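job 3f2a | input accepted
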Amino acid sequence: MLVVTDTYGVYEGDYLRPGDEAALERSPKIYGGLTEDEVVAMEGFVARGGLVLAEFNTFASPTPRPVRERAEKLFGLRWTRWVARYWPDLKDENEVPRWVGHVWERVTHTPFDLEGGGLVLVREDEDIVVLRAGIDLGDAVVTQERTAKGAALDLPARGSFWFWMDVVEATDGEVLYEHVVGTTPAGAKKLAEHGLSARFPALVKRADVWYFAGDFVDTGLDLGNPEHAGLLSLRGRGCGVAPEEAFFWEFYVPIAERLISSRARRGPSERPR
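job 3f2a | predicted structure (273 res):
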């Protein structure tokens, strides 16, 4: 099994301004993005029967376009160059990256002085859409809804994840979940004006290559005592789970656990070399 995650890379700001503060401003790249050698290695691994899981930002900046297109074929999808995230308070300078305001002002020629919560969609610094809570969005900001193909695999019915997502389109991959933006008529109109839909893939499967179109493992939870590993099954059923951790335990963990256990049960002769 191969897991591809956090390919965004390492930047000078990670050392000059460690912690979350570094993510609020852009800084020069030290290294980052997928390389052609890495994609070739993934292709070979899949050809030998390997299982690959990847998540948000595998295709986006700073991965070069030719490498991205080769990786997209492997995963059976295409990245639209849009990413999205919801912030409960658009004026929160400790959470909302400063580059979001810079893009807004450059594209709209108006100050970034929006108040309240908002779902921000950005297209590689070239375009931006903000769906305002209570105006463009209903109570269900974004949910992850299982498709018929997901139901056939007996995966969790739905989730509620609001953090970083990338907007992708399936090519020859199977869509097992969709992100569903809870738009009002005004919000749906805004999306349509930018060529966007309120529904887009959240989990795509092509053979044994799976792509989570969201930073689903992003959680601040305590990893806990390994002696209590047996509690995983209880938390997966919602026992003792804090509301802010519910998506991780009740949506992501059951899916990842199923994929991992399916390989753990295989004999040595069945595993890719």
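job 3f2a | The radius of gyration is 19 Å.
job 3f2a | closed
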